[in-house]
Each structure stands twice: as structure tokens, then as C-alpha cells.
Specification:
Elements: H1 5-8, E1 10-12, E2 15-18, E3 23-25, E4 33-35, E5 48-53, H2 55-65, E6 70-75, E7 82-84, E8 87-93, E9 101-107, E10 110-114, E11 136-141, H3 153-166, E12 172-175, H4 181-191, E13 198-200, H5 205-213, E14 236-239, H6 247-250, E15 256-260, H7 267-272, E16 277-279, H8 287-297, E17 301-307, H9 309-318, E18 322-325, H10 341-346
Parallel strand pairs: 3-4, 4-5, 5-6, 10-11, 11-17, 12-14, 12-15, 13-14, 15-16, 17-18
Antiparallel strand pairs: 1-2, 2-3, 7-8, 8-9, 9-10
Length: about 350
């Protein structure tokens, strides 16, 4: 008889724990052994004894936290089975940001897949999501409500370029999270033929340089020179969302406040943040893609980690899939949370 899922993964105060392998997945506090899905700070934290992750995620953690972010580290090559204690794990692309991966955990004839964060839209800066057949699929639900149906991100970037052409006397400030979202917006701008410099807040520099080192073509991305801000009419400037509210942003010529986020689907949130040009660009799956992904795995059971859990659990029930919410605190859209390591260092 196959092992019960609860014998393979259980919920602890630190997060999801695998007793058969003696490791946590994306733990919320330092643990002896961590498997990490991607480099966002709500999933990848410093201070673990050992970390197993993709090479790009490990490199991103080193960029963000320093080379001593953990005592030992091990690269998980994509798709390759790795024995950890009494379980076998595989890392499979998640399509969220550069280096992001789902983690498939197998033991006793049962396979559980921990999605981490993931999206299904095309993204020129990372490998696409790959569905993994499994018995239990552990999914996020950041945008797990029917109202969230993301448009094509390329169309949103065209809206930005239209505004740049329409208002050449104004600087366009695009709030975007420093890891993943910012680089995706840059890459999409380049794909749409925008070849002028894309100016960066200092918090964007190191991770953008890392993306370039990984072969992602982002073009000329100079750092904003504080003394030159008043002369940047017509420029496109990327900055962390928190910088949009700072004095730093007010020195640009008639700045157009833009924000690239799935939350821009909610007009009230855009107004609350003073966003003049909302850009619905998300690195998470929307309602339709969450459903499609669950069905593609063929899972008979779904656990929902965080986000709009109840709606997705209810939908699973309507299609005959057992589901339960895990109500895991501490995870979410990092761009909506407190300052990232880069922002803290740049402030």
C-alpha cells in the first residue's frame, strides 16, 4: 500500500517538514536542512545549516544575503533524482523567476509536488512551468479568485510604451519587485523594440547584473544618478514599489507612477497606492491557470499553502478533488511585503 501523504510531509511551525528526509521545504526560520524553491525572501531565508536548491537560486541567495547565507549548499540539477534520507526529490521548473523550481518528493509509491510560487504565462527570463504528475499537489493561491485573470503581459508593456510616447516630457517610474518582475519587464520592453536605456534604482542593480550574467538580454540599464533626476524627461525608470512613495521619486520631471503587479487588477488598490498607470503583470498564476495546473497534475488531493485558499479548495471539491487549506503564514507577494534585502541595503 502506498505511503500516506501525511507520512511524507507534515506542517510544523517552521513550515513543511519531511520526516523521512529530515528536511523542510521553504522554511520560515532557520533549520538544519532546507530545500528551497526559489530566491524570493518569503521562501528563501538565510541562516540554514544546509540548502539544496537549483544553482541559480543558490546564486541569487548569495547575491542577496552574502556567500555565508548557509553553512553548506548543494546544487539540485533540474529533473535529476536526488536521494535525501528515505525519499527521492526532483527539482522541476516552476516558471516563477530565474531558478525557480517545484520540488517533487517521492517515497513508498507516493509522489507529492510542492509548487512553490509559479506562473504559466510566457516569460523570457526563466524556464516555463512543467506539470508533474503526482498524487498530491501542494499549490499556492496568491490570485486564487475568479476576478484574477491576468492579461498578456506584452500588452501591458505596450501600454507603458504608448504612455512614454504620449508624454515625452514626463519620466515613467515603474514600481516592480527587484527579483524577477523587474527583469521580466525589462526583457519585455526589449522584445517590444524599446532600445533606450532603462534606468534602475540602486536596489535593482545587483540582481539585474546577475540576470545579465546568466545570458538574459536586458540591454543598457544604468543606475539613476541622483543629481540627474530632474533631467530625465522621457525616461523609463524601474524601482522597488517602496521607492514610489519616497522623496527619491519626486525629483523626476512630472513622474508617471506605474506599478507592475497582478494586484493592479484591483482598481481600489491602484488608487490607494497613487498609481497613475497600473500594469497587470504578475509572476503568479491566475485563477484559470491555477485550475489548469491542478488538473494537469492529475492529483487526487490538493493542499493550498497561502493566498486565496478557500476559493480554490471549494473549486477542487466541485471537480471531485480532495483539498484542504494549510493556512501557512509568512508567505505572499514579496513585492507587497516589507522591504527586500536590496531595498534595505539601498535605503
Amino acid at each position: 500500500m502506498p505511503l500516506a501523504a501525511a507520512d511524507i510531509l507534515t506542517l510544523t511551525p517552521q513550515g513543511l517538514y519531511c520526516p523521512l528526509g529530515d528536511f523542510h521545504v521553504d522554511p520560515m526560520r532557520p533549520v538544519p536542512r532546507a530545500l528551497v524553491t526559489h530566491g524570493h525572501s518569503d521562501h528563501a531565508r538565510a541562516g540554514h545549516g544546509s540548502v539544496l536548491a537549483t544553482d541559480q537560486t543558490l546564486a541569487i541567495m548569495a547575491v542577496r544575503y552574502g556567500e555565508d547565507f548557509c553553512r553548506t549548499r548543494q546544487v539540485a540539477p533540474l529533473h535529476e533524482p536526488i536521494r535525501v534520507g528515505d525519499v527521492t526529490v526532483r527539482f522541476v521548473p516552476a516558471g516563477h523567476v530565474l531558478g525557480s523550481a517545484q520540488i517533487a518528493i517521492e517515497a513508498g509509491g507516493t509522489r507529492i509536488v510542492v509548487s512553490g510560487d509559479y506562473k504559466r504565462q510566457a516569460d523570457p527570463t526563466c524556464l516555463p512551468f512543467e506539470p508533474v504528475p503526482c498524487d498530491v499537489f501542494i499549490t499556492e493561491a496568491t490570485f486564487g479568485l475568479p476576478v484574477f485573470r491576468h492579461p498578456d503581459a506584452r500588452g501591458e508593456v505596450r501600454k507603458l510604451l504608448d504612455s512614454v510616447r504620449l508624454f515625452p516630457e514626463r519620466a515613467h517610474l515603474v514600481g516592480a519587485y527587484s527579483l524577477g518582475k523587474a527583469q521580466r519587464v525589462m526583457a519585455l520592453l526589449r522584445e517590444e523594440g524599446f532600445d533606450a536605456p532603462i534606468h534602475l534604482h540602486g536596489a535593482m542593480e545587483r540582481l539585474t547584473a546577475f540576470y545579465k550574467e546568466q545570458g538574459i538580454p536586458l540591454g543598457d540599464t544604468p543606475r539613476v544618478v541622483a543629481a540627474e533626476r530632474g533631467k530625465m524627461a522621457g525616461a523609463v525608470v524601474l524601482c522597488p514599489p517602496s521607492a514610489m512613495q519616497d522623496l527619491w521619486a519626486r525629483k523626476f520631471p512630472e513622474p508617471v507612477a506605474c506599478f507592475a503587479s497582478g494586484w493592479m487588477r484591483v482598481r481600489g488598490r491602484a488608487r490607494q497606492k497613487g498609481v497613475e498607470l497600473p500594469l497587470i503583470v504578475s509572476d503568479h498564476s491566475d485563477w484559470d491557470d491555477l485550475q489548469a495546473s491542478i488538473l494537469e497534475t492529475g492529483a487526487g488531493e490538493v493542499w493550498v499553502t497561502h493566498g486565496q485558499e478557500d476559493a480554490l479548495v471549494h473549486w477542487c471539491g466541485t471537480v471531485g478533488i480532495r483539498a484542504k487549506p494549510l493556512h501557512m503564514l509568512g508567505y505572499g507577494d514579496e513585492g507587497e511585503a516589507e522591504a527586500s534585502p536590496e531595498e534595505a541595503a539601498a535605503s
